[in-house]
């Protein structure tokens, strides 16, 4: 994928209109995440899309910095937040590499439906670890691409070839847990709502 920013910008208006695929699972993920939150927490989200999840979480924490590579996604997220009068979310266009972020400055980092879209998952997890305070949590919702149906596994490379699908990385559950553990996390909560889907709350080790 030559320019992921362009790809996601183009998709943004359609993404904003697409409904949550499995509402029950989504709600459970929100509940699990909120069971960790504290009112004084600073939260960072990367790959926030059009901000829907940040908006739902905003009453439960002090502040959220929600970021995305796509300025079109961010523009939609900002409109929604302003329309709802929410004042504790700030949105910024950027990636984990490009954003000027202070180490150990967040109580929680959210990476939802994003890790498999990034070129280097191991490096990303390491960077997330640096951004978290000791004992902070990394909440990730993951697509296990090796487990998707044969239909999709055949179709995705064709779609990528004609520019209709982004870069996609494929890792197993054990590989993802291995990368988290190697980069200084312990697994606090693990839930596999479907064969190709893995929700994890990982905690940064205190020392
Ligand atoms: C599948 S969507 C998920 C959006 C949202 N987290 C959700 O769960 O609905 C992936 C998002 O990641 C963003 N994205 C892709 N590559 C990125 C990168 N390198 N850094 C930050 N965001 C990225 C896309 O623009 C898009 O909004």
Description:
The protein has 207 residues and is of the alpha/beta class. The protein has a single domain, classed as Vaccinia Virus protein VP39 (Rossmann fold). Helices cover 39% and strands 26% of the residues. It has seven helices and seven strands; from the N terminus they run H-H-E-H-E-H-E-E-H-E-H-H-E-E. The protein has helices at 4-17, 23-36, 52-57, 71-83, 121-131, 150-161, 173-182, and strands at residues 42-46, 63-68, 89-93, 106-112, 132-143, 185-194, 197-204. A seven-stranded mixed β-sheet has the order 3-2-1-4-5-7-6, sandwiched between helices. Helix 1 (4-17) packs parallel to helix 4 (71-83). The chain is globular. The termini are far apart. 32% of the residues are buried. Bound molecules: S-adenosylmethionine.
Question: Care to give the gist of this entry?
Answer:
With 207 residues, this protein is of the alpha/beta class. The protein is built from 7 helices and 7 strands.
Write the layout of secondary structure elements.
Elements lengths: L3 H14 L5 H14 L5 E5 L5 H6 L5 E6 L2 H13 L5 E5 L12 E7 L8 H11 E12 L6 H12 L11 H10 L2 E10 L2 E8 L3
Parallel strand pairs: 1-2, 1-4, 2-3, 4-5
Antiparallel strand pairs: 5-7, 6-7
This protein binds S-adenosylmethionine.
Largest sheet: 7 strands, mixed
Order of helices and strands: HHEHEHEEHEHHEE
Low-pLDDT residue intervals, each spanning 5 or more residues: none
Number of domains: 1
Name of the CATH first level: Alpha Beta
Q: How many helices?
A: 7
> Architecture, according to CATH?
3-Layer(aba) Sandwich
Strand order of the largest sheet: 3-2-1-4-5-7-6
Please state the CA-atom Rg, rounded to the nearest Å: 16 Å
The helix/strand class is alpha/beta
